[in-house]
Amino acid sequence: xxxxxxxxxxxxxxxxxxxxxxxxxxxxxxxxxxxxxxxxxxxxxxxxxxxxxxxxxxxxxxxxxxxxxxxxxxxxxxxxxxxxxxxxxxxxxxxxxxxxxxxxxxxxxxxxxxxxxxxxxxxxxxx
Length: 127
Prior knowledge:
It contains six helices and no strands. By secondary structure, it is mainly alpha-helical. The protein has a single domain (2-123), classed as Orthogonal Bundle (N-(1-d-carboxylethyl)-l-norvaline Dehydrogenase, domain 2). The radius of gyration is 16 Å and the shape is globular.
């Protein structure tokens, strides 16, 4: 179990760092040094980790229709804007595409109004 926890934590770390590099590439396309972006990204991302507990409660309850959740539809609009901004800046969307596609598949399956944590259902073990 210790090895599985380690690998699961590393999965989160690597995808977080990939997202950081995406953001750095986006603002870097306008000459912003990665160091300057990091000074903004670090406190923002640290604050976002505060939502892990509420996301975990939603996932554990499998209740994606609750009040106050960001809908998959809202998330899709945000991701579309981020993808388009990346393209406009000449930045690859290779990091964003898998997340975008997960959300899109959930919407296509009829879950647009449910919370974005619902992507867990597609990621979870199917055994």
